[in-house]
Amino acid sequence: MDASRLNPPASGSIPFRPVVREHWQQAIAAGLTTGDPAASGLEPVLKDATGGYFLCWPAAPVRSCIVYLGSEGQQFVAARTERELVSMLPFGGGLHDAMSHWSHALTDQGTPKPLPTERPSEPWSDAMVAALQAARVTLETDPGARIEAVNRAVLVAWRALCARNFKPVIVVRATRDYRPSERFTVGDRISHPTLGEGVVEADVIGKVTVAFASGKKTLVHGKSPS
């Protein structure tokens, strides 16, 4: 599938981008992972707004399985095939929630979050749906069930591969002053006028979660001037 055809029109912030192999190599060189997933036969497919990668794992128990390597160490299983993953992209953060739910439910990591039931209403989602329909992709109606099935088949082997070969890490960069109009990403160190210094731990559309000495705070970023 030609991922470039799946780029929606420029309206709103899109949480998923096709990966160029050179960008993936730059991420490895920058220390975003320890070890090279490519050495295990993994190929990048998509990058999300939090800095995580969806990767095709041809050697998995399910042929051409898509797995997820997050910027904070998440090791999820996403879909049986690239096309199946693409069919679920309009669920945005709900896709991550479903992966997290089944990863926790199947590995006794505590109480998982409830499964998402609806597609988000963010401005990018309608543009994503239109682009996928134009590319003749049938949208998935129940991503939770799809993700459950592939996790039951692949999760144990995927986590074992991660434990042997690599683990994502957050890269902390030079301190930047916080302004709502600035854009930040995972690993950025920011200086807030009242909260002090903190490190960005998560980047969701229009907002970042920042760990300060006083606790985690959610801040607006990338805000257009009024």
Which keywords apply here?
226 residues, alpha+beta, five-stranded antiparallel sheet, 5 helices, disordered N terminus
What does this structure look like?
The chain has 226 residues and is α+β, with helices and mostly antiparallel strands. Helices cover 29% and strands 25% of the residues. The protein has a 5-stranded antiparallel beta sheet. Strands 8-9-10-11-12 form a 5-stranded mixed beta sheet, with no helix packed on it. The longest helix has 23 residues, at 143-165. The radius of gyration is 18 Å and the shape is globular. The model is unreliable at 1-5 (pLDDT under 50).
Detail the topology: elements first, then pairings.
Layout: E1 16-18, H1 21-29, E2 33-34, E3 43-48, E4 53-57, E5 65-69, E6 75-79, H2 82-88, H3 93-107, H4 123-134, H5 143-165, E7 167-168, E8 175-177, E9 189-192, E10 196-204, E11 207-212, E12 215-220
Parallel strand pairs: 8-9
Antiparallel strand pairs: 1-3, 2-7, 3-4, 4-5, 5-6, 9-10, 10-11, 11-12
Quick recap of the structure?
With 226 residues, the chain is α+β, with helices and mostly antiparallel strands.
Radius of gyration: 18 Å
Spatial strand sequence of the major β-sheet? 1-3-4-5-6
**What distance lies between the first and last C-alpha atoms, to the nearest angstrom?**
39 Å
Unreliable residue stretches: 1-5
Helix count, DSSP H or I runs of 4 or more residues: 5
Give the biggest sheet. 5 strands, antiparallel
What percent of the residues sit in helical stretches (DSSP H or I)? 25-40%
Secondary structural class: alpha+beta
- The rough form would be described as globular
Tally of extended strands? 12
Mean pLDDT: 81
